[in-house]
UniProtKB/TrEMBL annotation:
A Pfam family reported for this protein in Swiss-Prot or TrEMBL: FAD_binding_4
Catalytic reactions of this protein: (R)-malate + A = oxaloacetate + AH2; (R)-2-hydroxyglutarate + A = 2-oxoglutarate + AH2
Organism of origin: Nannospalax galili
Name under which the protein is recorded: D-2-hydroxyglutarate dehydrogenase, mitochondrial
UniProt cofactor(s): FAD
UniProt-listed Enzyme Commission number(s): 1.1.99.39
Any one cellular-component term (Gene Ontology): mitochondrion
Amino acid sequence: MVLHQMPRWSARLFRAPPGWRRTCVLGPSMGSRWLPDRWGMYSPLVCRGYSSASGSPEVMLTCKRYPVQRLPFSTVSEKDLAAFESIIPGRVITDPDQVEACNVDWLRSVRGCSKVLLRPQTSEEVSHILRHCHERNLAVNPQGGNTGLVGGSVPVFDEIILSTALMNKVISFHNVSGILVCQAGCVLEELSRYVQEQDFIMPLDLGAKGSCHIGGNVSTNAGGLRFLRYGSLRGTVLGLEVVLANGTILNCLTSLRKDNTGYDLKQLFIGSEGTLGIITTVSILCPPRPQAVNVAFLGCPGFAEVLQTFTTCKGMLGEVLSAFEFMDAECMRLVRQHLHLAIPVQESPFYALVETSGSSVGHDAEKLGSFLEQVLDSGLVTDGTVATDQRKVQTLWALRERITEALSHDGYVFKYDISLPVERLYDLVIDLRTRLGPLAKHVVGYGHLGDGNLHLNVTAEAFSEGLLSSLEPYVYTWTAEQQGSVSAEHGLGFKKRHVLGYSKPPVAVQLMQQLKLLLDPKGILNPYKTLPAQD
Ligand SMILES: O=C(O)CC[C@@H](O)C(=O)O
Ligand SMILES: [Zn+2]
């Protein structure tokens, strides 16, 4: 371990908070108001939030908070319910309490008023449901783990909620190629555990792993914590089965690494947030499980030093580097304050989390040791700690993964997920602190520095139009001026659909609208999402 070669460096032990990273999936009854949060725990915040008896304020209806008009879809009739019941007997949910939980997003920032929740188990059932909805002009909101951050996974009005929760079977896993084929509703953490038992890992990892579904991950093209090493789902997803708006099943479920026959149709459904079709089955390439994983948690005196640490890291750790995340002091303070997690290094203006994943314990430790020596000696890093055993590795990761959760305890959160040239990644955070002054409670910046992805979060006691108008369109204009992306990895959903034009030219937006019309002529699939409203 690095500690032995380098006495200045201390590997410290932290106690994980009780219940940390407990796994759960939606209970079979769906009658419970205790829903798992994105981190797979039954957190008090979520329990309070979903219990109307607790007296916590109701989330304002999306159609009241935002200027949005219901499109002329039909409304669900008794005959429709009977038709659904014949397709999925016993899995048509109309109990208001159960449906309500699926009407509200995890952040408790948007709320629809759907009256019906459907829980199919197979692609054929999804196909029959969509055929009926298409004929009847009924709008449908596909929903996975409901962990999205842009309001894409809950209805805006009374769209039927089609949950993938019961589509949770692994279909096959090939332990030579590492190709996993599974249904869309498999929970990411359960898949991770499943493939790990066979010495593989999932190519993506997210803070929300305990609740999010692989189908949701693919339909939003989720990025996450392993992107730096394993790249986008656009590369690791090998095939998809998708049900189109009219109920047709499109089988592109190949498990081939190479296939240049015609247009790559599956790419249309990756990242289109359920607006072009509902993903029902996924074929995905899993990398072999690394034999040695090390995590270093470092304190840096400034953002310039974080950047230089990253450059040094790439140069010295090269092929074993698997993650480089950064956090500012403000977000770590909130993690300590709201989650009571101990920060293992001296208080610093910035922190970096570096992960290496390789095949040789000794080789990786040696490389990491020289890197740490170099960054410490040159003053790029002022304090740090290293973990090699799994429990400590997870404890360090928790400090990064649980920032979103900590922020949600701080009040209403305005979220921005931006791609920027890495050297400008933190400028907007500094700029906004001055611009917003006391209007904001906290302005924090953290994210996937290795991918040029900033998570800019602004907290306030409550949602406020005034604060919103100081933030938008300012943040988007600023980002567009740097040729950045206004949504790096969270998608556009409902909340960001109107800003697509900041990152894509009019011709591209028009082509997207034409594709939508071609695949979903009645617009029944996840309406009011992804594409800007058309007049
Ligand atoms: O809450 C956020 O802004 C980011 C969530 C997620 O993408 C993360 O990287 O932790
Ligand atoms: Zn992220």
